[in-house]
Amino acid sequence: MTAQRVLITAGAGGIGRAIVEAFTAKGAKVFVCDIDSNGLAKLETDFPGVQTTLCDISSQADIEKMVALAAKTLGGLDVLVNNAGISGPTAPVEKLDPAEWAKVVQVNLNGTFNVTHFAIPFLKQSTAGSIINMSSVSGRFGYPNRSAYSTTKWGLIGFTKTLSIELGEFNIRVNAILPGAVDGPRFQKVLEGRAQVSGKSIEDETVLALDSQSIKHLVNPRHIADLAVFITSDSGQSISGQMLPIDCDMQHA
To answer: Which residues cross the membrane (predicted)?
Structure first.
């Protein structure tokens, strides 16, 4: 089997880096973009075969160049993992700066659209094209004080469903992964934001965050990566248009 050619956005850290590691371990040819130059440098050191470039996912011009470079470097494209996204502020709608709202929409929705838009012609040339959109448990529930983030993650569900229908005839599968509370620095920042709004301690907010889960632990990023590898593999050939929660059975926000 020919090695998969995989483009991963925001792959320098967190879930993205775990996905890079999983695809690399499988023997895939991986291209990563990120806005974090130090993270990319470390990625190249840790995984010598991985190709990287700086890219601002809020910039359409950056994205167009990045996707073309990725396809040229990899010799085509089989898998696109739209992992880039920002959390945005924690605030009620009436106090949320409209500019901050727009910033989250620009990266999480418009950025994902633009990467996908420019990648589709290359994916159509693959015999087993696959797209993963990284949504969130916030794309299943409403989240008070997180309106911009939640709205964009819900939007990615509609985007995924629509893409799966449009691209099915080209044998391109499109799925969304919906992680819950993921262990790592990013979720710690979310907890800090919640604590500032609520006046509770970070420890109390952690307990509250896990309260709605039947399995009381944070999600391991490696398990999300394993899911990404599986659904883009030959074993996932019949999986498309699906929303795949990996959230320790979260019941509510």
So the answer is: none
User: Which of 47, 122, 143, 149 is the catalytic position?
Assistant: 149
Run of H or E including 211:
helix 202-211
Residue 81 covered by a domain = yes
Q: How many Å apart are CA 40 and CA 142, to the nearest integer?
A: 34
Q: Structurally, how many domains does the chain consist of?
A: 1
**Residue 149 annotated in active site:** yes
**Tens digits of residue pLDDT in 140-189:** 999 999 999 999 999 999 999 999 999 999 999 999 999 998 988 878 88
Query: What's the token pair of residue 133?
Result: 């959109």
Extract the tokens encoding 243.
């929303």
Any idea what the CATH number is for the domain that residue 238 is in?
Answer: 3.40.50.720
Terminal alpha carbon distance of the chain? 42
Which residues, other chains included, contact 149 with Cβ-Cβ below 8 Å and sequence gap of 6+? 87, 88, 104, 108, 136, 138, 143
